[in-house]
Amino acid sequence: MADFLFILSEAAGAAAPGEPKSFGIIDATAWVSIAMALFIGILLWKKVPALVAGMLDNKIAEISKQLKEAEQLRLDAESLKAEYEAKLARAAKEADELRARADAEAEALVAKAKDEATALIARRKQMAEDRIAAAEAGALAEVRAATAKAATDAAAKLIADKHDAKADKALVDDAIASVAKG
Length: 182
Known about the structure:
Layout: H1 2-12, E1 22-23, E2 26-27, H2 28-45, H3 48-162, H4 165-181
Antiparallel strand pairs: 1-2
């Protein structure tokens, strides 16, 4: 091709410096315009603009699809966030309810323990009072027995001191007489 252009340039003759060379009746600017028109024609004939537009449309569709997917993912994330916030709120509410129930049960247990302690103290007090009463009754019985023994011993001594055999004979005779009458 270079040989062909060389021959054309020799045939056209030398142009003046600063002037475009011409090849016959068509100068270089016209050749560039023709080549450009031919290039654009080939591009149109091969449907390059349609291919570029199709590629751009495909890219736009792909980006649009990715945007829709991103929007759906964002909606799903917001939904999950709301769901977990609701679960967290329910868990906090349940924890508060458990704490309230535990406090109520603790108060009930304390009250029950106080009641049981009061009842235990009352039972122990009653048992102690019963033991004291039994001890008092036993001590009173011992004192009565000791008093009776002391009185009996004192009476026996007095009788022994004041009665002699003559007085005893009179008492025995009176007792036999009263039995014989009877």
